[in-house]
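Hi, here's the filled form for the chain we discussed.

Project: internal
Contact: R.S.
Residues: 146
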Amino acid sequence: MAGQTEVVNRTLGTLLRVLVKKNLKTWDPLLAHVKFAYKRALSRTTNDSPFKIVYRYNPLGPLDLIPIHLEKMNVQASKRVEEIQDLHKKVKGQIEKANKRYQTQAKKNRKHAIFKPGDLVWVQFRKDRFPSKRKSQLMPRADGPF
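And the returned structure, exactly as it came back:
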């Protein structure tokens, strides 16, 4: 999930930069616009926007969301529950399919290495495993051969 959060943050940062440009003090009122634009954009995983998944259609502007609240009161609860459950099953299936596609792509270039006694190996210094070796980004990332 950390990778997904980083992608979302990068996307929202880019959207804000485009809207703010040189007026750095005007970013706060623009957050609502950025949020709306992000929720209206299609997701590659689900092939739908978050608005379409939740409200069953993609609004053109914020004013298009007003009738949704009135409509919710008139719809039969059991019918709405079934619609939401069907939608969740559909989105879950699409997410699982996308995850399998990503896994297949990631495994395509991966080599399975079997080491024997006496083989020389390089050690990758990751921050979580070797905190003393990765105090700075300028320090070496690997060492060896061992």
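Let me know if anything looks off before we file it.
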